[in-house]
Amino acid sequence: MATNKIETKEDLDTFSKNNYEEYRNLWKRYHRINSAEKQSEILSEINDIQPKIKELHKYNNYCKNIKKQSESIQENLNNFDKNIQKEKDNSRIL
Known about the structure:
With 94 residues, the protein is mostly helical. Helix content is 84%, strand content 0%. The protein is built from 2 helices and no strands.
């Protein structure tokens, strides 16, 4: 995350969206290369693209997992704050 300068949820969303778009575009390109005419050229292009596709797919999965975990953590913090407030309210009543 530090390497890609991701500090906020918005940074993560932007990074994830950009990676997904590049990932999707590479796959489109990859699938369009199924021409029998330029087979050797296509094979070298596929070999060049495939590692990038795998890397972008990995980053996209990381971003989804981080987003899911951060939402869960935020929900836990919100519940914790609610519980603290309930305890304060209950202690005032007593």
